[in-house]
Amino acid sequence: MNSNLILSDETISNTIYYIRNQKVMLDRDLATLYGIETRVLKQAVRRNLSRFPEDFMFELSKEEFENWRSQFVTSNSDKMGLRYAPMAFTEHGILMLSSVLNSDKAIQTNIQIMRIFVKVRQMLLDTTEMKLDIVQIQKKLENQGKNIELVFSYLDELTDKKENDKPRTKIGYKK
Known about the structure:
Layout: H1 9-13, E1 16-19, E2 22-26, H2 27-34, H3 38-47, E3 57-59, H4 62-70, H5 74-79, E4 87-89, H6 91-100, H7 104-164
Antiparallel strand pairs: 1-2, 2-4, 3-4
Helix pairs in contact: 2-3, 6-7
């Protein structure tokens, strides 16, 4: 593997967006990572549209596109050639791109992207497990709080009984 083909994890991670409740990467970011022009990537996809069903790739709606553009300085996005809504590729769509773009750089980049997606998925699983653990701890603490309250109420009852008790008469020999 060529050292000039390796991209940093951060470079790839910063191009993953959350759109329509899915982790996706946009065509222009992928083109940059693959070292090709966006139009070349789009042409390759359009020539092979049957390989990209909607759960693999979709074009951003006008509202999504405007929202995405507004998150970046709009004057810069016009300079970046964003006249058309970008294509968003899910993890499966990115995998399919490797069969459409058959260069060494595309293959190596896809391998790195897939590794990043696996790391992101693992982080989500880890945080989900931590959330479940926290909920269990909270439930235990709530139960302990209730148990402590119960102990204190029993102690209060016992002290009230002791205070209300009449002095006992002593039995036995009297002097």
